[in-house]
């Protein structure tokens, strides 16, 4: 009996070791897109569910936009409209040391699909890379508004759990994080035409296969940049009742960032599709009982 318990214990330890595997996927700096968590071992099915959902939303928001139109997007829009995006793009291309529109081996222009799913080979996570005209945080918010609508009781996803947009990303180095943070948080905290009052904010960091920079070092640096020297604003940290939440997604050698509003937590349940529908189904059941 003792031997059997020892063998079982060994198998349990072996299974425990296999529970978390190191990801072999990779994201380039300068990438924008959407992370999605999902049920374990259903990453591919979740990506398929999201592909249908995202393509439908893309058609609704942007209509039929072919690759050529996407490729000439910079030329078709005014400099004023793209000033922030162009600045981010320029900064991140400098960090990469290459033109993101060119293939690194052939030098040819890449085909610019607005939605491209990337296999991160990471348990419970999938990623969709986005291109213009998509703005990830606006795109995801539009989807969450549809899903949170009380009249919408048809759940179209089975394996998808939480969606997290990232505006842009950079390599996992502090100096590049500082540059990225200044560009991403600037419109939300430092633009006088948009920011008319001091805001309450929080920073949320998620790390996967990532140990380059400590979590608190990231948080402290971002908080410092929100209230940087010379700024007339006096934004304050509030972990519960924030007006803005800065999301930082760390994956291997990549750091992504975006800013969402306070209803991210209150109205949209941290963009958790499962929780939104569970809440709606529960409310529906309560009405039936009454």
Describe the model.
The protein has helices at about 1-20, 45-60, 65-70, 75, 85-95, 135-150, 175-190, 215-225, 265, 275-290; strands at about 30-40, 115-120, 125-130, 160-165, 170, 200-210, 235, 245-250, 255-260. With about 290 residues, the chain is an alpha+beta fold. It has one domain (about 25-290): VC0802-like (2-Layer Sandwich). The strands form two sheets. Strands 5-9-8-6-7 form a five-stranded mixed sheet. Strands 2-3-1-4 form a four-stranded antiparallel sheet. β8 and β9 form a beta hairpin. α5 runs antiparallel to α7 (about 175-190) and α7 (about 175-190) packs across α8 (about 215-225). The chain is globular. The termini are far apart. Mean pLDDT is about 85; it is low at about 15-20, about 65-80 and about 105-110.
Keywords:
single chain; 290 residues; five-stranded mixed β-sheet; globular; four-stranded antiparallel β-sheet; VC0802-like; alpha+beta
Give the SSE layout.
Layout: H1 2-18, E1 32-38, H2 43-62, H3 67-71, H4 73-76, H5 83-96, E2 115-122, E3 125-130, H6 136-148, E4 160-166, E5 168-171, H7 174-189, E6 200-208, H8 215-226, E7 236-237, E8 244-251, E9 254-261, H9 263-266, H10 273-289
Parallel strand pairs: 6-7, 6-8
Antiparallel strand pairs: 1-3, 1-4, 2-3, 5-9, 8-9
Helix pairs in contact: 5-7, 7-8
Protein name: THUMP domain-containing protein
Domain THUMP: 148-261
Organism: Saccharomyces uvarum (Yeast)
């Amino acid at each position: 009996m003792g031997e059997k318990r020892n063998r079982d214990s060994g198998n349990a330890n072996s299974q425990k070791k296999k529970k978390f595997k190191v990801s072999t996927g990779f994201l380039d700096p300068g990438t924008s897109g959407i992370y999605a968590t999902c049920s374990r071992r259903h990453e591919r099915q979740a990506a398929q569910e999201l592909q249908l959902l995202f393509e439908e939303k893309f058609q609704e928001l942007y209509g039929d936009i072919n690759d050529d139109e996407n490729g000439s997007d910079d030329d078709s829009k005014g400099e004023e409209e793209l000033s922030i995006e162009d600045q981010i793009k320029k900064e991140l291309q400098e960090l990469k040391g290459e033109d993101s529109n060119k293939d690194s081996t052939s030098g040819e222009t890449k085909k610019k699909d607005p939605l491209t799913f990337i296999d991160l080979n990471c348990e419970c996570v999938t990623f969709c890379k986005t291109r213009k005209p998509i703005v990830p945080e606006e795109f995801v918010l539009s989807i969450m508004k549809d899903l949170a609508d009380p009249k919408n009781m048809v759940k179209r996803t089975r394996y998808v759990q939480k969606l997290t947009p990232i505006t842009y990303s950079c390599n996992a180095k502090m100096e590049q994080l500082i540059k990225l943070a200044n560009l991403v948080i600037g419109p939300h905290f430092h633009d006088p035409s948009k920011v008319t009052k001091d805001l309450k904010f929080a920073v949320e960091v998620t790390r996967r296969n990532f140990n380059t920079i400590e979590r608190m070092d990231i948080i402290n640096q971002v908080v410092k940049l929100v209230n940087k020297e010379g700024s007339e604003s006096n934004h304050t940290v509030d972990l519960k009742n924030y007006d803005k939440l800065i999301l930082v997604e760390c994956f291997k050698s990549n750091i992504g960032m975006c800013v969402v509003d306070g209803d991210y937590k209150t109205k949209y349940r941290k963009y958790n599709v499962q929780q939104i529908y569970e809440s709606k189904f529960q409310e529906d059941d309560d009405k039936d009982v009454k």
